[in-house]
Design a protein that fits this description.
The protein has three domains: 81 residues, Arginyl tRNA synthetase N-terminal domain (Gyrase A, domain 2, 2-Layer Sandwich); 197 residues, 3-Layer(aba) Sandwich (Rossmann fold), CATH 3.40.50.620; 173 residues, Isoleucyl-tRNA Synthetase, Domain 1. Helix 15 links the parallel strand 9 and strand 10. By secondary structure, it is of the alpha/beta class. It starts with a helix and ends in a 9-residue tail after the last helix. The longest helix is centred in the middle third of the chain and has 25 residues. Helix content is 54%, strand content 11%. The strands form four sheets. A four-stranded parallel sheet has the order 5-4-9-10, with helices on both faces. A three-stranded antiparallel sheet has the order 1-3-2. The radius of gyration is 29 Å and the shape is flat. It has 23 helices and 13 strands. It binds arginine (ARG). Arginine binds next to helix 14 and strand 9. InterPro entries: Arg-tRNA-ligase, Arg-tRNA-synth_N, Arg-tRNA-synth_N_sf, ArgRS_core, DALR_anticod-bd, Rossmann-like_a/b/a_fold, tRNAsynth_Ia_anticodon-bd. It holds the Pfam family Arg_tRNA_synt_N. Its main location: cytoplasm. One of its GO terms (cellular component) is cytoplasm. Keywords: Aminoacyl-tRNA synthetase, ATP-binding, Cytoplasm, Ligase, Nucleotide-binding, Protein biosynthesis.
Length: 566
């Protein structure tokens, strides 16, 4: 239940000329609880009513139905509302316990479709840290949007097309038959392909014919040559298989893996449209779209050698997605370095006259640094994502072994804690901020970490096991006691937090909410004996159960698991 709604409704009856939303917006939360739980200022009515605010307040209070409140009183120009905490609290607990799975849901989306393009790694290369961030941020946003009733279409837009595959094929043709390469392709296919690619690029300086060979292979591929197609398909399969291992560890599932190659087959339409609208200009043998009027660099649509580009494929992709999914929003979770690029994409669609150009949103994010160092694939300091996740699981396993040596499913829990820790660390700050990743800080049971939240919930579950009740339908929930109010009131704010996260595409709101809830529960636990064998014990256990449900729900929105014991 939304406590603010109770205040809004009481005021609405007394102020029939105002819109409900207008009233709701004006309601404040006083800093000092002596001024009530909510306060309604009357200044803004002074002009239209031609009266002093103090006067308005004292007249207004006469018209307010005070049932359900402890107290409603005038304080100068304000009306202060004191909630009946026992009743409000019982309502909050009841709505959580009755339907824990759906608690916090709302209907911002009305089931409208949203496509979300995330992860989107480039094949035949190891997945980079940027792609890991995209995967985690994208998945959390998708889950949050589902909670507010959007229908999500998850798309892994694989980078599986482009001249680099021509080079890779040329390299494979030259060196692929050696025993070393053949073994490598079996054991570590992606890195073996990467090595071939690096080798041909380095040696091409001395052997310009390698570059020509690469170009020929790509041309063959574009023209549907069987052998080229077969090689390309094979590169894609072994890459995807590898990516799937990371997705499985993270519990991420996509609806589509249509990548650049898929869109490469659909490029006539956007090119023709650009031509028809007179937007394509020749420039030094290439064809471009001028975006000067938007203060943006021109778009390179067709290169001087006749091949198309990343953006041409993205234009085709955008047209396809709109037609296929009829989306209300089309999100692209991609690093901040592509900010200008996505502005160009939006403006190009606008220039083409598509009124849905503004449904395209770039959900950008900052870099992830490993122990203070920037990570990049090009410079060779490649960090394997699987290694990062596995190291984190190992560290979690060690800590669990110390804390809880008898834990039965320790291995599974270590995975949930280790991987959850990495995800939580990535999501807890606003996505645009850079993230510094230091394993020892990430997998910690204290501080602002995922394991801290998981541990608070495991503690709640342990109390519940000892308490022995799981069905609270006959418990008088008004009996929790005043000491629980802050915690309960915070439980009541979960739905609002989820909405805020959804509107701003910002998982950190949910992560911060989960941290705060864990902290408040730990404080409550420190000051109140939950298992005290008195008549109020069932109500306190009900509260404990509600906290456990909401912590689990918030973690699930972030794609972090919640073990019952750890
Ligand atoms: N593969 C690209 C990269 O690694 C990201 C693709 C993002 N999605 C898109 N539709 N452009 O940079």
């Amino acid at each position: 239940m939304d406590e603010k709604l109770q205040v809004t409704n009481a005021l609405a009856v007394a102020l029939p000329d105002l819109e409900l939303n207008e009233i709701k917006e004006k309601i404040e939360r006083p800093k000092d609880s002596n001024n009530g739980d909510y306060a309604f200022p009357t200044f803004f009515l002074a002009k239209s009513l031609h009266k002093a605010p103090q006067m308005i307040a004292s007249e207004l209070i006469e018209k307010i139905d005070q049932t359900g409140f402890d107290k409603v009183m005038v304080a100068g120009p304000y009306i202060n509302f004191f909630l009946n905490k026992a009743n409000v609290g019982a309502e909050v607990l009841k709505s959580i316990l009755n339907d824990p799975e759906h608690y916090g849901e709302s209907d911002l989306g009305h089931k409208a479709n949203i496509t979300i393009d995330y992860s989107s790694p480039n094949i035949a290369k190891p997945m980079g840290m940027g792609h890991l961030r995209s995967t985690m941020i994208g998945e959390a946003i998708a889950r949050i949007l589902e909670k507010v009733n959007y229908n999500l279409i998850r798309i892994d837009y694989l980078g599986d097309w482009g001249t680099q595959f021509g080079k890779m094929m040329a390299a494979y043709e030259m060196w692929g038959n050696s025993q070393e390469v053949q073994d490598g392709l079996k054991n570590d296919p992606i890195n073996t392909l990467l090595q071939l690619y690096v080798r041909i690029n380095t040696e091409a300086d001395e052997h310009p014919e390698y570059t020509d060979a690469g170009r020929e292979w790509f041309a063959k591929l574009e023209h549907g040559d069987k052998e080229a197609w077969h090689l390309w398909h094979w590169f894609r399969e072994i890459s995807l298989e590898r990516f799937q291992r990371v997705y499985k560890m993270l519990d991420v599932k996509f609806d589509s893996f249509n990548g650049e190659a898929f869109s490469a087959q659909k490029m006539e339409e956007p090119i023709q449209l650009l031509r028809d609208k007179g937007l394509l200009k020749k420039s030094r043998g290439a064809e471009i779209v001028d975006l000067d009027q938007f203060n943006l660099p021109p778009l390179l649509i067709i290169k001087s050698n006749g091949t198309t580009t990343y953006i041409t494929r993205d234009l085709a992709t955008a047209l396809f997605r709109k037609r296929m999914y009829g989306h209300a929003k089309s999100l692209y979770v991609v690093g901040a370095e592509q900010e200008v690029y996505f502005k160009q994409l939006r403006m190009a669609l606008k220039e083409l006259g598509f009124n849905w150009w503004d449904q395209i949103e770039h959900i950008s994010f900052g870099l992830m640094n490993l122990n203070g160092k920037k990570m990049s694939t090009r410079k060779g300091n490649v960090v394997s994502l699987e290694d990062v996740l596995n190291d984190s699981v190992d560290l979690a396993r060690k800590q669990i072994a110390e804390k809880n040596p008898d834990l039965k499913n320790a291995d599974e829990v270590a995975k949930q804690v280790g991987i959850g820790a990495v995800i939580f660390h990535d999501l807890k700050n606003y996505r645009q901020n850079a993230v510094n990743f230091k394993l020892e800080d990430v997998v910690k049971f204290e501080g602002e970490t995922g394991p801290y939240v998981q541990y608070a919930r495991a503690r709640a579950e342990s109390i519940l096991r000892k308490g022995g009740i799981r069905d609270f339908s006959n418990v008088d929930l008004t009996q929790v006691g005043d000491g629980a109010w802050e915690l309960i009131s915070f439980l009541g704010q979960y739905g609002e937090a989820v909405k805020r996260a959804a509107l701003n595409y910002d998982p950190s709101v949910v992560a911060k909410y989960a941290l705060e809830l864990a902290k408040k529960f730990n404080q409550y636990y420190a000051h109140n004996r939950i298992l005290n064998d008195d008549p109020q014990q069932p109500a306190r256990l009900a509260l404990t159960q509600a906290v456990s449900h909401v912590l689990k729900s918030a973690l699930a929105l972030l794609d972090v698991k919640a073990p019952d014991e750890m």
